[in-house]
Amino acid sequence: MSDHPQGVTDSPVTVVVVDDHRMFGELLRRVISTDPGMACVGTADNLSDGYSMIDALRPDAVIMDVQVGQEDGIAATAELMRKHPGLRVVVLTAFSTEPLLRRAVSAGASALLAKDGAVEDLLAALKPAGPDEFNVDPALLRRLLVARREPGRRAVMLTTREDQVLHLLAEGLDTTAIAARLEL
After folding, report:
1. Which pairs from 36-40 meet CB under 8 Å and 24+ separation?
2. Do the bridges between strand 67-68 and strand 71-72 make them parallel or antiparallel, or are there none, so unpaired?
3. Helix (H), strand (E) counts: the chain
4. How far apart are CA 150 and CA 145, in angstroms?
5. 6, 42, 107, 133: least surrounded by Cβ within 10 Å?
6. Residue 42: count of CB within 10 angstroms of its CB
7. Secondary structure element (H or E) that encloses residue 97, with its range
8. How far apart are CA 127 and CA 116, in angstroms?
9. What pTM value is reported for the model?
């Protein structure tokens, strides 16, 4: 992990990719290498190799697939956060649900992004940010909101404030803008 104050670096953000699809992991490595402020220091296609690589290389950030083979990427995120406080873990998913979003937040992930999302959003989520910042792909949030309104679905009860925050996140506002809008 970097010993620099938040947001101040003189070396690239180091990243490890953990995804069971080797080609996707390699593509992420190449995408990361296009950003001069980042360096992909390794890719792993299973959690065992991922843990070993992260323990040895001590990256600043990890891209974690939500499902790595038959293993749970969010449970792995929680384990990584226990072992490496301050690590930024960006969880990637092809399909999101409210329970998945809640689990990612509880596990300590920094972001939950769609695998079909924008590369710029992924790169931004890997960079240092505020300690309580959590990035969610706005398209995922919109899908969650639509799913909550579908007939026949069991409603998930949110507080009024949680519902307001969810809608503002779906509009693409960041945590600072949401706090200002809601006067928090």
Report:
1. 36/12, 37/9, 37/12, 37/13, 37/127, 38/12, 38/13, 38/14, 38/123, 38/126, 38/127, 39/12, 39/13, 39/14, 39/15, 40/14, 40/15, 40/16
2. antiparallel
3. 8, 8
4. 9
5. 6
6. 20
7. none
8. 20
9. 0.74
pLDDT digit string (tens) for 14-44?
999 999 999 999 999 999 999 999 999 999 9
Query: What ranges in the chain are assigned the alpha helix state H?
Result: 22-33, 47-57, 73-83, 98-107, 119-126, 138-149, 160-170, 175-181
State which H helix or E strand residue 69 sits in. Answer: none
Here the tokens at position 146 are: 């639509």
SS3 call for 110:
coil
Residue whose tokens read 């990584």: 80
